[in-house]
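thread: overnight batch results

M.L. [08:02]
morning all. the overnight job finished for the chain we discussed friday. pasting input first so we're all looking at the same thing
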Amino acid sequence: MRPVITAFKASPDRGRGLARDMAVRWALEEIGLDYDVQLLTFEELKASAHRALQPFGQIPTFQADGVALFESGAIVLHIAEQGPGLLPVEAAARARAIAWMFAALSTVEPPIVERSMAILLEREEPWFSARQALLDRRVRGRLAELSVRLGEREWLEGDFSAGDLMMVAVLRRLKGADLLGGEPRLDAYVARGEARPAFQRAFAAQFAVFEASEGVAP
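M.L. [08:03]
and the structure it wrote out:
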């Protein structure tokens, strides 16, 4: 059966392609696997039918051929294992690509998300300015370390892989934050990821959902 993924019916990021189904769509496009999308309202996310697939009431989920998954990283890894293009064949290189997936989600993303949530939820607090400065330093520290490791390479480990896909997806969360600009290597790295035809197709599909939710004519 064609994979079925879930996504937001109403885009919470105003069509910027930051919702977590984006990485899943991108991975499916990279390996050339057609898929269907079930769009859910925020109320449907919390319903028992969806929680049976995603116990925390989030998106995305993935279902195909008896496999039901949640968590974007786990889904992207499963997709990468289904076809060529996202994981190297050689065992050690394959393991390194997977390690970069974990690094993106476990090391690079947490300070980025913490910073975003602070801006969203704590902006009016009297101590916000000092906290934001601290969070900015943490993010910049991670970016500097990643930039050193990337160096002059096009991708993190040889050819483009699922590790790069997840890393670019995470770094895109900084768009508009004036932090990536301080690391031109990473800025160019993200641009390379966004220039990939598979990314462009995935972004267009997700943006179409935003247009529909806003009542914009195609």
